UniProtKB/TrEMBL annotation:
Belongs to the archaeal Rpo5/eukaryotic RPB5 RNA polymerase subunit family. Residues 28-110 form the RNA polymerase Rpb5 N-terminal domain. It comes from Pseudo-nitzschia australis. This is DNA-directed RNA polymerases I, II, and III subunit RPABC1. Its main location: nucleus. Signal peptide: none annotated. One of its GO terms (cellular component) is RNA polymerase I complex. InterPro entries: Arch_Rpo5/euc_Rpb5, RNA_pol_Rpb5_N, RNA_pol_Rpb5_N_sf, RNA_pol_subH/Rpb5_C, RPB5-like_sf. The keyword RNA-binding does not apply. GO terms for biological process: transcription by RNA polymerase II; transcription elongation by RNA polymerase I; tRNA transcription by RNA polymerase III.
Length: 228
């Protein structure tokens, strides 16, 4: 199907195939796939995503953003389903290698609208100076960044990736109480683990991992995030 672009790599020849592009040019097809993954990611994190974004097809993507999409026009602002004050921006950087200047533009908008969290989607990479700037402003803003190539495929939908569910603070407390544990006694998941990054896990977050089991039907484990 033209709408199903489930390719497990960033192969230009594969993306260029007409059946994969769904009538979009190469850059637009790439952005469509990234946009679709971002939509899934936001929903998985508990943010309210519009029906228009959730159900975006190549045709509707082209109608909304044109044949040659402006990444700036693709900016998204969402809020948590259970907390309207918990908002997050998604910025799509135009520059191939993001420096300090565009980050200042993003943070100025965040400050003006009272938003502390953001995801920055990079065309290619980020400069060392920009990484330093992000670190220095971490007390005021939490800005995660992903390369477009990392978002071409939704890793959580891969058949080899088990179901992950990040626990709420209440669920975490009940788990630790039930098993009489401290969170430091749980197995760990690194903050740079691809799935931990997908869910935006922070230090102290606990994730429930559900794997199929031939004997028990399913096998459940828990891991705590070391940092982030």
């Amino acid at each position: 199907m033209a709408d199903d672009m489930d390719i497990a790599n960033d192969d230009p020849a594969a993306i260029a195939a007409p059946t994969v592009r769904g009538g979009l040019n190469l850059d637009a097809a790439r952005l469509f796939r990234v946009y679709r993954t971002i939509s899934n990611m936001l929903s998985s994190r508990g943010y309210m995503v519009t029906k228009e974004m959730r159900e975006t097809t190549p045709a509707s993507f082209k109608a909304r953003f044109s044949e040659h999409p402006s990444r700036e026009a693709m900016t998204v602002l969402v809020e948590k389903a259970d907390d309207e004050n918990n908002q997050l921006f998604v910025f799509f950087a135009e520059e191939e290698k993001v420096g300090v200047k565009p980050i200042k533009v993003f943070t100025d908008r965040m400050r003006a609208e009272g938003v502390a969290n953001a995801i920055m989607v990079l065309r290619v990479d980020i400069t060392p100076f920009a990484k330093t700037a992000l670190s220095e402003m971490s007390g005021d803003f939490r800005i995660e960044h992903f390369k477009e190539a990392e978002l071409l495929v939704d890793i959580t939908q891969h058949q080899l990736v088990p179901v992950h569910q990040v626990l709420t603070p209440t669920e975490k407390s009940e788990l630790l109480k039930r098993y009489r544990l401290k969170d430091t006694q749980l197995p760990r998941i690194q903050p740079n683990d691809p799935v931990a990054r997908y869910y935006g896990m922070k230090r102290g977050n606990v994730v429930k991992i559900i794997r199929p089991s031939e004997t028990a039907g399913r096998y459940v484990t828990y891991r705590v995030c070391l940092g982030g």
